[in-house]
Amino acid sequence: MAFLCLLCLSAQCQMAKPAPATDPVFEGLNYSYEVRKMTLPDGTHIAYVDEGKGPETIIFIHGLGSYLPAWDKNIAELRKHYRCIALDLPGYGKSGKEGIAPGMESYANTVFGLMDALKLKQAVLAGHSMGGQIAITAALQEPKRVKKLILAAPAGFETFTEQQKQLFKATVTPESIQKTTPEQAAANIKVNFHKMPADAQFMVDDRLKMATSEQFGKYSAAVAGSVAAMVDEPVYEQLPQVQVPTLILFGEQDALIPNRYLNPGLTTKAVAESGHSRIPNSQLVLVPEAGHFLQFEQPAAFNKAVRNFLD
Fold this sequence. Notes:
Layout: H1 2-16, H2 24-27, E1 36-39, E2 45-51, E3 57-61, H3 72-78, E4 83-88, H4 104-117, E5 123-128, H5 130-141, E6 146-152, H6 162-171, H7 174-178, H8 182-190, H9 201-210, H10 216-232, E7 246-251, H11 268-278, E8 282-287, H12 294-297, H13 299-310
Parallel strand pairs: 3-4, 3-5, 5-6, 6-7, 7-8
Antiparallel strand pairs: 1-2, 2-4
């Protein structure tokens, strides 16, 4: 009966909110795997990929200003052993951009909505950067639905004062994002890496393409709203409540965590160890020769650590 009600609710929402018109720019981005589309019961339009099968299902959650291709090198290997699902968060990539209210809890609810639609009672959540904070939020909201956590350079371990939070929100606005020059946009992506690999150039190319879209303003609003949500919905104090087995990975040369301007006295190792010490059932792996985007820059090390953790 509950399932029938869910189907009815989903149908009603789809009738109330028809699928958005195809945007040629965002839809034209080249994804490595077959893209599937779904409308969740709340009317959110989601794009995702679903590859492989195995004893575990991993749901990959991308970071700020990113999209599901961020996990390409991980899905390529891990789908041989597990079911790998990666989604574009609302406002990002090929997912809908209408009526988006960015938030750590709302994004966690989107993940659960996708799980419901795919009839998944439980899954392993893998989150990068902002996606890590979303995964932590999900584990705090619905601990029985999150089997394990894989946190790649997660946001949420670093803390900020109220003044720092306000500075963050004032600096990153939809207007500032839209005014970003091509050169700065490219630099913003390159700083995610210790040594940016040549096969990551598509991220720069795609970001420049996005700026030509009629929906770029809505994408910019989603990114700015996500920044505000990260600082307004902190998880640091709640980390001891995370009871599921957790794998934490950081690149040793991460240039984004900690924030070099707001917390110049901190090191990546100190932030990583602080979060690790607060999550009871966690293990920490520091990946050498890797920056913030460690799972793309050092995929072999990342994938090996994930396999050891899950197996």
